[in-house]
Amino acid sequence: MTTRLPSTGATEFAADPSSTCRSDEVVVIHRLFRRLFAEAPDLVRKVASGDTAHARHVAKHLRGIIALLHVHHRTEDEYFWDVMTERAPSCGLHVALMRRQHDAVSDRLDIADALVDGWARRADDASAARLAAELGEIDRLLVEHLADEEREAFPVLDAILSDAEWDDIHRHARRHKPPLPIFVLLGLMIDSVPEAERDAWFDTELPAPIRVAYRMVGRRQYERAIQRLRTDRTRAVTPATA
Ligand SMILES: [Fe+2]
User: Which residues does the UniProt record annotate as the domain Hemerythrin-like (predicted)?
Assistant: First the structure.
C-alpha cells in the first residue's frame, strides 16, 4: 500500500465519493518494473566478453522487458491522460509531465533495443558498456517517473475512474501476449511484492488454476530461468576467440 499525497490540483476536480484505490494494482506492476530495470545493467555486465551464447540469452530477456514497459506505457497513454484532462482539467500540468516522461522513456527504450542487437552479436566490452549505461539511464528516468506518477496522477485517477473503467483497463492490458515466458513473468511479479504481503497477494490476486500451475511447475521454471539469467559468467567462461 502506498502513502497517498494529494495532487497539487486535487482540490479542483469533483471526486466520486465512491472512489477506490484501484491504482494500487498498477503499483504492483510498477514495483516489477523498478526491479527489472534496476538489475538490467548488471545482467549485461555479468556476461563475459565474447560469450555470445549467454549474451543472446540475456538479450532475449532485455527485449522482453523493453517490450513490456512499452506496452504498459501505451496502455496508460490510451486510458489515463485524455480522461484526466477531461475530468480533472486543473491537473493539466501533471498530465503534461506524465506524457513528457513517457516520451523520454520511450525514446531511451528504442535506443536500448537497438543496442541490444549489436551487443548480442558480439558480446564485446564496448557494446556492453554502452548498453549497460543506457539501461542505467532508463532506470534513473523510470524511478523518477514512477514516483511522480504514483504521487501526482494515481490519486486523481482513483477519484475519476469507475470500477468498470479500471476493469476495462485490466482487460485491455491482458489482451497483449506477454513478451516474457508467462511463469517467468509471474515469478518476477510475485517476487516484487514485499515479502510480508506476498502470500496474501498470491492467494487473493491469482485465480486458483494459475496458483496450482505455478506451484506445480511454474515456480521451478522461473527459478531455473532466473538463475541462468543472473549467473555471473565473467568468472566462469574463457572468452571465445573471434
Ligand atoms: Fe507511467
Answer: 26-157
* Average pLDDT value for residue range 31-53: 96
Given a contact cutoff of 8 angstroms between Cβ atoms, the answer to whether 94 and 7 are in contact is: yes
For residue 15, how many other CB atoms are within 10 A of its CB? 15
Compute the distance from residue 98 Cα to the ligand 1 centre, in Å. Answer: 7
What is the DSSP code (8-state) at residue 220?
Answer: H
**67 CA to middle of ligand 1, Å?**
14
Can you give the pTM of this predicted structure? 0.86
Instruction: Say how many domains are in the chain.
Output: 2
90 CA from centroid of ligand 1 (Å)? 19
**Gap from CA of 25 to ligand 1 centroid (Å):** 13
Q: Is a pLDDT exceeding 60 seen at residue 2?
A: no
Distance 30 CA to ligand 1 centre (A): 9
Based on the fold, state whether residues 141 and 47 are members of the same structural domain: yes
Please give the residue range of the domain that contains residue 88: 23-179
**CA dist., res. 100 & res. 54, Å (int):** 35
